[in-house]
Design goal:
15 strands, 6-stranded antiparallel beta sheet, about 375 residues, Glutathione S-transferase Yfyf (Class Pi), Chain A, domain 2, single chain, globular, about 25% strand
């Protein structure tokens, strides 16, 4: 997998941009505010269907413009790819996948894989459970692209179920029974896939964090469901029984609250450092190292799947690390894979690059 070209129009700070990418390491060099991160954001959007910085696509429209356009040309196993996305100030969206148009940005997922390391990744460790669920589901959607539709359908059923809980007189008991059944049926495959994904991440995260931190600190993670204190079973029958039991136990509480109180949309990924919850105890440096280990583990999992080797997007991550951690991170980055790096200073990178683009004054210039 690789990106060949990126074209932007009225995206964030860029009136226009055309970038011809190298198959190796691409450095975006420029001062803060030059638009480096916006380029990575566009790549992320084209590949995953959402921005790592906002979930409101209208925010991506350049000030004074009416609509943004971004188009990524790439290749996968000698097949040419073209992915495009646009949105106007009213929120009207359009995507294009190899010439076919549509409206759902989620349809962009699964054609080219990317893994990004961003300053905002601290939220995965320190933020609300939503950030960790988003990390899992974005990785799951690239690892098993049909997960996108299952997650979308589950979210639709939960919205309908919440509406029924808020207005029981409008929605009869038979409607609620159907929604209860649909919710369980969709939740089971999501849980099975998330649990299997976390199990696959654990050894990689543990190893990568130990190598990156360099201090013997141990990292661990496990899936924490909203179904009681017991560990979740990993088989479909056991999960169905657990969900149905939870459904019965919280029925009165849900009726009073007017919302769904359990399910994949309320679960969490528990991150631990030396057997203590990282969200509560990790320092800034510890949280950053753990977030990087999670992203690199995600890249390893995708890289092990034929045809899904991800493009790496590194948004000024070296500037946030001390000298020894910079060197250790550089040693951990996968070799022979395409990457895009942002940095205000070339000296922050402890390795050579294949192509450098200088971003200055709203323009991009390739430096040979």
């Amino acid at each position: 997998m690789r990106v060949l070209r990126l074209h932007l129009q009225d995206f964030r700070s860029w009136p226009r941009l055309a970038l011809e990418a190298h198959s190796g390491t691409n450095l975006l060099l420029g001062r803060n505010g030059a638009g480096k991160s916006n380029v990575l954001e566009a790549l992320h959007l084209c590949a995953l269907g959402f921005s790592p910085r906002t979930r409101s696509e209208k925010d991506l429209v350049r000030w004074g413009a009416e609509r943004f356009y971004c188009r990524l040309e790439g290749s996968r196993e000698d097949r040419h790819l073209e992915l495009g996305a646009s949105c106007d100030l009213t929120g009207r969206k359009e995507i294009r996948v190899d010439g076919e148009t549509g409206r759902l940005f989620s349809r962009l997922v699964g054609h080219i894989s990317v893994v990004g390391l961003y300053p905002e990744d601290l939220e995965i460790v320190r933020g609300a459970p939503e950030a960790r669920r988003s990390f899992l589901d974005a990785l799951l959607s690239q690892r098993q692209p049909d997960s996108v539709e299952i997650l979308r359908e589950y979210a639709r059923v939960v919205r309908q179920r919440n509406a029924a809980l808020k207005d029981p007189e409008r929605f009869g008991g038979s409607v609620r029974e159907v929604l209860d059944r649909q919710m369980v049926d969709l939740a089971v495959p999501i849980l099975m896939r998330r649990i299997a994904l976390v199990d696959a991440l654990v050894p990689a995260v543990t190893r990568l964090h130990a190598e990156l931190s360099g201090n013997g600190e141990s990292a661990d993670l496990w899936y924490r469901g909203s179904y009681g204190d017991e560990d979740l079973p990993s088989d479909a029958v056991g999960l169905t029984e657990r969900l149905e039991s939870r459904q019965r136990r919280v029925a009165n509480a849900e009726s009073q609250a007017g919302t769904t109180l359990f399910g994949p949309h309320r679960d969490d990924l528990l991150l631990m450092l030396d057997a203590r919850p990282a969200r509560e105890t990790a320092s800034q440096g510890q949280a950053r190292s753990l977030a990087i280990a999670l992203r690199l583990a995600a890249a390893e999992l995708l890289g092990a799947i034929q045809g899904r080797e991800p493009v790496l997007l590194l948004d000024d991550v070296f500037a946030e690390l001390d000298g020894p951690r910079r060197e250790r991170l550089a040693a951990l980055l996968p070799r022979g894979r395409q990457s895009f790096l942002c940095s205000p200073r070339r000296a922050d990178l402890p390795f050579s690059v294949d192509r450098t683009f200088v971003l200055e004054g709203g323009a991009l210039k390739e430096v040979l």
